[in-house]
Design goal:
This protein has 91 residues and is an all-alpha fold. The chain has helices spanning 3-6, 11-17, 23-36, 43-55, 62-70, 82-87. The protein has one domain (6-70).
Length: 91
């Protein structure tokens, strides 16, 4: 995947240039980035492209951590409904 396709507005590129950027700011930029990529684009492929381009040698940068987290599968939701949820019973 081309870098221009993976980061069309240069949001991730700019995040790596901001000195002292926090993880929270990187998460916010990531959400803006995710909303700006074209429909149908493979998000995991785009994230891998961004890590390959910007994350090399920048393992300690908060954006690298945010991008890496985007590639991990989310935890399965645990349903707490019915009587157990109303009574505060944990399972």
């Amino acid at each position: 995947m081309e870098l221009a396709e993976a980061d069309p507005k240069g949001l991730v590129r700019e995040s790596y240039r901001i000195e002292g950027i926090t993880p929270g700011e990187c998460r916010s930029i990531f959400v803006d980035w995710a909303l700006s990529i074209p429909a149908g684009l493979s998000v995991p492929d785009a994230v891998r492209t961004l890590i390959a381009e910007y994350g090399q040698g920048m393992q300690d940068h908060p954006m690298t951590g945010v991008l890496a987290a985007a590639l991990t599968a989310p935890d399965l939701p645990r349903r707490r409904g019915g009587r157990a949820a109303r009574q505060g019973i944990s399972g």
